[in-house]
């Protein structure tokens, strides 16, 4: 006996077996019970959600030898013929290949004939939107006033293409896309019946790949079983179907958030080397960004997503990486990739350019916020700059297009840059490099303060906050520089010199003496030793000093 694929083997034979379409099956069962069966139905919905299956179930429910009944027996000759698809009273027509008006005229002639064995003659027209305009026109009169023994059931994936004149003459039922949880549960039951051991994560991945289609999910399960046998893991599904590993997506998005162009290029190479379909990767990446956008819109948005609770916890680790505006721009860049690839451009080049563009993209700032901050004389908030955030290190700056990082010195022109626009970020090497010139500038304002700061050590620079350390003997210096007027003068000179919003903190390190003072003392000792040794080694010099009662005040090495 030939193998029967799972999609046909487990096709529902009762209304109760239909997956996740209770709103349709309940209405039809009640219509049968109350003898309110219509003459025309329109079943709409995505592929693989049960439109044709429910049409056959309705045909069996009406024509069953025990019917009309909401629970056809599936044992009588009529039920068996309908199940096998060879009933003379249930005619299935593919509108995609029977689109012309002549086909509909032939159908219109045949509706006069009474059913051969059942109670009703039923016409199931699949993909009815493919009929031509003239074919629809030819069908209108028959559909509006059909013989009492006729039922029309139309199925379509594109109801918007069905004329209003047809819609108004039928009862419309919209089939929903099946959720991942419902699909995974359905696959689990079938896997148990087939003695297939499959991981829950693999079931979830198959359900997601099926995109709400029961038929597609069963076809995928068939394919995976042929590849691995009766034990299926998550890795088996990824390898067999050429899917994008979820961790790969998380790593890719993490690299975008961290502005890691090198990693983006490396991962793009891995993507092409693995043979994954680029269209699948783009779809998964778009869905990843969409999930982050929805979860970032509020604390109670998980119900809007068709993903498991465990997956939601994973996504929440990346929710703070981007603002809503960032995600919209990232999704637009990603969506543009498909169009560029379809135009014939090199896939790898297009994806590399898009990846680097996303990594280099600055964070979104509302223009109203910038204006408000500038009007108030404040530094506009820089999104993502806080190091306490869980986001990878990325400090976007909406002023990057303006050369504020190294502002020109316009003092000779009588111009100065407003402090509210000092957006330069200073690190310790930069501070130390210009520290001597800062001390020189401060000396012009206060020689005393300059000399005090000269004896302090730069301990740290973090978020433009400087920590200067005085040592055990520097208590007096600390008290002096911390006076309000002195501290204000130091801070003002810092900002003007570095063109940055710098703040400064002072502290005492009681553990040791100032190394600068120790160096000075050591130099004096060295000089004293040199002078003493010089006098001892030179009798002539000693006699000269005794005659003039002189003293050596310095030693200069010969050039």
CATH superfamily of the largest domain: P-loop containing nucleotide triphosphate hydrolases
Work out the radius of gyration.
Answer: 40 Å
Outline type = elongated
Q: Report the CATH C-level class of the largest domain.
A: Alpha Beta
As a percent range, the share of helical residues equals 40-55%
Q: What's the architecture of the largest domain, going by CATH? A: 3-Layer(aba) Sandwich
* Main beta-sheet strand count, sense and barrel state: 5 strands, parallel
- How far apart are the termini? 106 Å
Biggest sheet: strand arrangement: 2-3-4-1-5
Strand content: 5-15%
* Number of discrete helical segments: 25
Total beta strand runs? 10
Domain unit count: 5
CATH topology of the largest domain: Rossmann fold
What structural class is derived from the secondary structure elements?
A: alpha/beta
Poorly predicted runs: 383-391, 393-417
What average pLDDT do the residues reach? 81
Please give a structural write-up.
The chain is an alpha/beta fold and 559 residues long. It contains 25 helices and ten strands. The strands form three sheets. Strands 2-3-4-1-5 form a five-stranded parallel β-sheet, covered by helices on one side. Strands 8-9-10 form a three-stranded mixed β-sheet. A two-stranded parallel sheet has the order 6-7. The protein folds into five domains: 6-174, Rossmann fold, CATH 3.40.50; 180-241, Helicase, Ruva Protein, domain 3; 247-304 and 311-360, Zinc Finger, Delta Prime, domain 3; 428-510, DnaA, N-terminal domain (GMP Synthetase, Chain A, domain 3, 2-Layer Sandwich); 516-548, no CATH class. Helix 12 (246-257) packs antiparallel against helix 13 (261-274), helix 16 (324-342) packs antiparallel against helix 17 (347-360) and helix 20 runs antiparallel to helix 21 (447-454).
